[in-house]
Amino acid sequence: MTDLYQAQRAMRAMRRAAIQRGVIAILDVGSSKIACLVLRFDGPDAFAESEGVGSMAGQSAFRIIGAATTRARGVRFGEIDAVAETERAIRTAVQAAQKMAGVRVDHVIACFSGAGPRSYGLAGEVEVADGPVSEQDVARALASCDVPDLGAGREVLHAQPVNFALDHRSGLKDPRGQLGHKLAVDMHLLSVDAAALQTLAYCVKRCDLELAGVASSAYVSAISALVEDEQELGAACIDMGGGATGVSIFIKKHMIFADAVRMGGDTITMDIAKGLQVPLATAERLKTFHGGIHATGADDREMIEIGAETGDWDKDRRRVSRADLIAIMRPRVEEILEEVRAILDHAGFDQLPCQQIVLTGGASQIPGLDGLAARILGQNLRLGRPLRVAGLPQAATGPGFSAAVGLALFAAHPQDEWWDFEIPAERYPARSLRRALRWFRANW
C-alpha cells in the first residue's frame, strides 16, 4: 500500500514541477490513433496548491502550443500488445508536436481506454477531536475506508473522495474548517489490469519520456464532453473509441462509476473487411465516407465502388449498395450499445435523478448513431464534442479528441485523490492492496 501511495505522490510532484517549468505533454494512446498535445502554462505560479477537496482544485491557465496525431500501431482493445510498434508511433506523435510547439518536453501524462476497469464504492468514518475539521482528520477518514481485495494482477488507477458527511450534514465538498464530531467519507476507487499499466509505463520510458500521470480515457473524456450542469446533476458519458467503448457516470462533479466494452469503431471496420472481402484500409474508408445505421429505399440504388488496391481490376472495381454496407454495420453497433445498456443497468444509472447520456468518441460520428442510441439507451441523449480550449487546432475539435482535450483539463485542474493527503502510516490497509502498483518502482 505504501508503494501505491508514494508512487502516486511522486507522479503528482513530477507533474507539479513540469507545469511550474511551463511545459508538459498530453498523450492519448488509442487503438486507432495516438494523439499528443503540448501544453504551455502561464506564470511561475501556474500550478497552485489545492485549496479544496474535489474537482477543479488548484486550477491552472494553459494554452495548447503543439498538436499531432499518428496512426496507432501495436494497440488492440485500448491496450498495448506490440511495444516496439507503439513506441515508434508515440515517438512520431511526440516529435511532431514538439516541432510544432518549438520546445522539448520531458514529461507526459497519458491515458488509455482498455485494461478492464472496475469500480468500487468505499466508505470510512472517524471521530473528530474538539475543534474544526483539519487536514489530518480528512486523511484519517480516507485511511479508514475498507479497501477490498482487488485480486491478483489488479492495480489502482483512481481513488477519489466523492462525498463528505459531518454529523448529519451530507453532500459536503470540503469539510475542512467546519465544526462537528463525526466525519464520514465516500470514495470511488477504480482498478485496472496491472499488465496494461506496466506495459504503458515501460513503453513511455523507452521513448525517453517521464510518466507524470496516468488516467482512464472514460474519465477524461467525460471531463471534456460533459458540460458543468451535466456533471453536477448526473450524466453518463459513452466514449466510443477504436478498440474499446468507455462508460463513465458522473454526479456532483465526481466520477462514481467507470467500465468499458472491448468493442469499438475498429470492430465495425473489421466486420466490413470480412463481409466485403476488402483490406482494412478500404473498409475504414467505406465506413467513414459511406457508412450509416438506417437504410432507406434510396440506399438500395446507391452503388459504391469499392476501389481497392489489390491489383485485380475486376475485384478492385466491384460495386456494392449502401444498403449492404449498412446491413453489415448495424448489427455490430446494436451489440455495442446493448453492452453499454447492460453496464448502465448494472451500475444503477436509472436511479439517478437526471439520466442524461452524452455520446462522444471517434466512432460516435457514424450517421444515424444518435437515433439508434436514443432508442436503446434512453431518449435524453446528445452527441458530445470536446470543450474548446485556447490554442486547440480546428482539426482537433471533433469527438475523437475528447479524451486528449479532457486529459489536458485533467492535467491543469487535478481532482484531489487519496494520495494528495498525508495518510497516517499506521492506518495503511495492510492486506487489501499489498500487491498494488509495484510497477512504478521498475519504471521510474
From TrEMBL:
Cleaved signal peptide residues: none
Annotated protein name in UniProt: Cell division protein FtsA
Function of the molecule: Cell division protein that is involved in the assembly of the Z ring. May serve as a membrane anchor for the Z ring.
This protein's GO CC annotations: cell division site; cytoplasmic side of plasma membrane
Keyword line: Cell cycle, Cell division, Cell membrane, Membrane
Source taxon at top rank: Bacteria
Subcellular location: Cell membrane
InterPro entries associated with the record: ATPase_NBD, Cell_div_FtsA, FtsA/MreB, SHS2_FtsA
CDD domains: ASKHA_NBD_FtsA
Quaternary structure (record): Self-interacts. Interacts with FtsZ.
